[in-house]
Amino acid sequence: MRPSGRDLSEMRPVSIETGVTKHAEGSCLIKMGDTHVICTASLEPRVPPFIKGSGLGWVTAEYGMLPRSTGSRMRREATTGKQGGRTVEIQRLIGRSLRAGVDRVALGERQISVDCDVIQADGGTRCAAITGGWVALRLAVNKLMKAGDVITDPLISPVAAVSCGIYAGQPVLDLDYPEDSEAGVDGNFILRGDGQLIEVQMSAEGATFSRDQMGTLLDLAESGVAQLVEAQKAATA
Amino acid sequence: MRPSGRDLSEMRPVSIETGVTKHAEGSCLIKMGDTHVICTASLEPRVPPFIKGSGLGWVTAEYGMLPRSTGSRMRREATTGKQGGRTVEIQRLIGRSLRAGVDRVALGERQISVDCDVIQADGGTRCAAITGGWVALRLAVNKLMKAGDVITDPLISPVAAVSCGIYAGQPVLDLDYPEDSEAGVDGNFILRGDGQLIEVQMSAEGATFSRDQMGTLLDLAESGVAQLVEAQKAATA
Amino acid sequence: MRPSGRDLSEMRPVSIETGVTKHAEGSCLIKMGDTHVICTASLEPRVPPFIKGSGLGWVTAEYGMLPRSTGSRMRREATTGKQGGRTVEIQRLIGRSLRAGVDRVALGERQISVDCDVIQADGGTRCAAITGGWVALRLAVNKLMKAGDVITDPLISPVAAVSCGIYAGQPVLDLDYPEDSEAGVDGNFILRGDGQLIEVQMSAEGATFSRDQMGTLLDLAESGVAQLVEAQKAATA
Amino acid sequence: MRPSGRDLSEMRPVSIETGVTKHAEGSCLIKMGDTHVICTASLEPRVPPFIKGSGLGWVTAEYGMLPRSTGSRMRREATTGKQGGRTVEIQRLIGRSLRAGVDRVALGERQISVDCDVIQADGGTRCAAITGGWVALRLAVNKLMKAGDVITDPLISPVAAVSCGIYAGQPVLDLDYPEDSEAGVDGNFILRGDGQLIEVQMSAEGATFSRDQMGTLLDLAESGVAQLVEAQKAATA
Amino acid sequence: MRPSGRDLSEMRPVSIETGVTKHAEGSCLIKMGDTHVICTASLEPRVPPFIKGSGLGWVTAEYGMLPRSTGSRMRREATTGKQGGRTVEIQRLIGRSLRAGVDRVALGERQISVDCDVIQADGGTRCAAITGGWVALRLAVNKLMKAGDVITDPLISPVAAVSCGIYAGQPVLDLDYPEDSEAGVDGNFILRGDGQLIEVQMSAEGATFSRDQMGTLLDLAESGVAQLVEAQKAATA
Amino acid sequence: MRPSGRDLSEMRPVSIETGVTKHAEGSCLIKMGDTHVICTASLEPRVPPFIKGSGLGWVTAEYGMLPRSTGSRMRREATTGKQGGRTVEIQRLIGRSLRAGVDRVALGERQISVDCDVIQADGGTRCAAITGGWVALRLAVNKLMKAGDVITDPLISPVAAVSCGIYAGQPVLDLDYPEDSEAGVDGNFILRGDGQLIEVQMSAEGATFSRDQMGTLLDLAESGVAQLVEAQKAATA
């Protein structure tokens, strides 16, 4: 029934290659099927004004898409003079989600900036960005710990994200672009490795959904995130 | 336990005054406690390019806050040169939510723009904007139907929104600002009058939540939205 | 002869309601006929760089219109990326006019920001903004004096403004929108309560005017401002 | 008493050199004392949307200052990303004033853009811009008439402008920068060659003024503009 | 003598991998040492206004750097509101250079947009972008020719670029970042495969250069470009 | 053969008038044929952050064109919200070129800003700007030395620029606009008075060039710059 022939609860193949750029403190290329995202974590010399002197750390994120990561070329946001609404929403989500897995006291007063740049898009780019972004963050934090700059591990639990939706009337896991563009309801679930929910974002796009369906979608999300956390652990072992 | 002395499942008083500006096709001033929002619905002569010739209608929304609607004065977005990320997120949510209650074929090829301007803020402004925005939309559509420009009612069901969150470890309904600024988890539930879910947005802010808590929050939201739909019906009767 | 049936020298009804928002140090809703403006005065923690260390105070103003305050919806300035030329002109005028009634030494090194937001427009919005803005300023200064932060009253005299113009060949007072859009000459007179002139702005729009007409317009303005000052005093008594 | 030693009612020397750039349809360099402004009038192939098909012409203006036209270097507006409030006000004033001397029916459906660029500033740049701008406009219209593109002269009467103010308690004519920066009250009077008033803009800057003083200022302005109109006529004879 | 141990006239290893994104009509990942650039060529449905109806084609280019492609994180240009001067210069150079190898009549009235995004930077990114950009363009044109949309090959000759400079007093070929940041003179030479010069850009940065040195640099550039053209041919064979 | 009737190696008449604005520390009006540029050098009270505390000086430049300096009116960059790519390229070139003739230690920690504003354009504006900009810089530095603020002359050698190109198949010197708009290859050569090269920028615009032609162009440039340096010396003697 799904365009890709996958089962309703079947994820696309996931791969995470680390160390893809020599400059960043942490980096990876995450592939969820044909969705490819480069994630880097940069230790920044400056902290935002609102944490100065607080002793607390900060993790922030930015998101971008290469102009031809998509089926037809998009305008480059740098030439339009601003980031679009969708970009702003996504990067705020990535930052908020990653922070939910961080002990900001243990991190200490420093900022880590996570950049997620989509090289090729086929649905679920924000979920790939969060999942890969956590890997880059993990690697950067490892470096800080190895150097003795951070003593207690500030990463409480892995953070991963997966999309779910209702496609052709059926709850499905990990939508690709052909599904995403047709789904009447879709959304993103961000969970920690310990099963706690961090963020739920379900949106109707021309349809609505019932509480029962909400339950099924949560089941799918839990199963998907569990697989992603395995891949994160393998990549950062 | 709540700063306002309300019960965990108790809403703030709601009032909706219609016809507050003589120019708009539909308008209201909605008050949810000390959160006051002016909502107007404007019939626009032009439709966005992507629906031209489709015969389908469009509903869009914009959101703003008066600079001193808040405890300390905010910078006016018109002077900063752009709408902030929070504003963009909120107005996209309002538009998407209202469209989920609209039969775009019945509306016909026309655009209605809903403006939600916060006069005084005390938490839950986006929920008040959606709930009041629907009232303004209802009144503007009534005008179109009375004039014979629209035959079948394009409004399928009322759309209303309420915030819920976990405050001091307890799920609570309709957070005011003192609660909102302390809650470790909070979010917004947008439902139709027939009980169908349109949008769920739960975010951790320094805490996480379990599936059980998610269930309780959904219960609270359903009860809150039911009360708001009553107020919407009374205001537009 | 006037569309509203008013005499040539007759003002629209004026009302000033104070305390319309709980956050601002001073606030009012001023109505000059169908022109409704919310004015707030905010005590700002910071002063502009050019007065730092001078011991002098500063009063500044910003002006905005809700998108549907007018007959047809205007674009929201926050979405266009900048304030239009008309807005910039008006808010500079409001700030300059209010400062002309302030003893900046007595105010002390602090800034008060006056925001004037038009809820409904029917001509003369900048005059209503100045007149209502002064009321908000008065209330905020009263608060400072009550708290003992300011000892000598820094408000020398009330400041109020009224529009005049030549409509259908006749000098008229307090133009509403139907008159304003037809008048060949119109302008604004800002005066202090003691009768001194602060600002005169007369513009030809397709017509010109003689020195004699200028005299008549000044007579009208003096009579109009006197009535506004009475309303200001009543509201702040 | 005046820093320059001039009498209270004495203008600075005025010179107007025409034809200063080979490309523009009309151009001049106007000098009012040490204030030097290059004015060009350009016949534009396009008209603004709001006059399309109306048969009416349009005259618009833009104003700029070279960064080092002033005592200390100003930031170039092209690098700040927008024209400042003062610039916007001035160029709107120039355009409005010039249009008050134009018969838009006689001009026919075409646009003339007047650019006024300040090479050296010493007070009164906007008045020099209006006075020189009219000369450039006159020359461009002459060209149109010579070519037979315009039959009836669309320039009803010359338009010229002069500043007046109250300096050291005395009404003075044509303020230079040292006076302008000290004057408690100053403003601009734009008149037609036939003595009709087009625009009056008097502003208090830390002082106020009486009706009597307003009369004296009008007397000075009438005398000043009469001299400028002579210079305009000589330059375009 | 060179930090990398290379000979004065020795290039870094070059590799060009094609087909790196499934959406673009042509794409490659070019590596010149540690400088890695993704180049895509997109066939655009629209042409710029200035070629409409001319029958001539257009090739344009855009350039970007991932924020952490460099040693320390750069601000993302999309968040600063505009492309910096360096970016604008580079992308204009890429477009101009590629067009110098295109027969615009043979291409026909269509636009190809070449995007060059730097994944990892180590000096010479603009040269890598031109060289890789031509490969992406070649592949996209091949597709057009295979589909019969273009009959005569519009690509006259390959276009490739290499940097040269004077490092520690010696003319060197293909500078990497440690050399680039120290070189007193450096620049870029863009040539066609047939040896014709397209663009020469030599700049002093704290030093100057003689005509003799200019000759040696040209020799180096010719040898470097010959090697790059071989790599281009191998990649697109 | 040249539209102007000049020989292939003949420059246009050059004149340099100094002291054209009373405010700037150095200024001139340079005319290369019908290309007229006002250049000012301003001593700035502040230095850019990257030289603070270094003891080194900085020279920067900005470039602009009056809207009607060209055959048809251009949009004013201040109204478009940003400087175009061409402007940015040119002003970076001017600054870089002038700095190549400056001993930044001798200048001491101060910034000089050179503004080059084109009053009338007929090709070669950037070369006129560099040549005239150096004159303004020379005069400003003279002032610093006279005042004893700078002891050792920081200007190593004059800096001047000339354009060359291939017009109708022939290498020509100092292109005017009719040639510039037809030339298949053109560029700019910036040299010091001692004959050292500072910058070479040759670009193909629809044609290419050989190494032999490159040699001839360099010959022409050396002869042209020698004449300009004479004019610079005469003007600043």
Automatic annotation (TrEMBL), chains A, B, C, D, E, F:
Q: Which Pfam families match?
A: RNase_PH (PF01138), RNase_PH_C (PF03725)
Q: Report the superkingdom from the record.
A: Bacteria
What's its catalytic activity?
tRNA(n+1) + phosphate = tRNA(n) + a ribonucleoside 5'-diphosphate
Give residues annotated as binding phosphate: R86, G124, T125, R126
Q: Name all Exoribonuclease phosphorolytic domain ranges.
A: 10-140, 158-223
Q: Identify the enzyme class.
A: transferase
Which key words are in the record?
Nucleotidyltransferase, RNA-binding, rRNA processing, Transferase, tRNA processing, tRNA-binding
Subunit (UniProt): Homohexameric ring arranged as a trimer of dimers.
What family name appears in the similarity comment?
Belongs to the RNase PH family.
UniProt function note: Phosphorolytic 3'-5' exoribonuclease that plays an important role in tRNA 3'-end maturation. Removes nucleotide residues following the 3'-CCA terminus of tRNAs; can also add nucleotides to the ends of RNA molecules by using nucleoside diphosphates as substrates, but this may not be physiologically important. Probably plays a role in initiation of 16S rRNA degradation (leading to ribosome degradation) during starvation.
Protein name in the entry: Ribonuclease PH
Gene label: rph
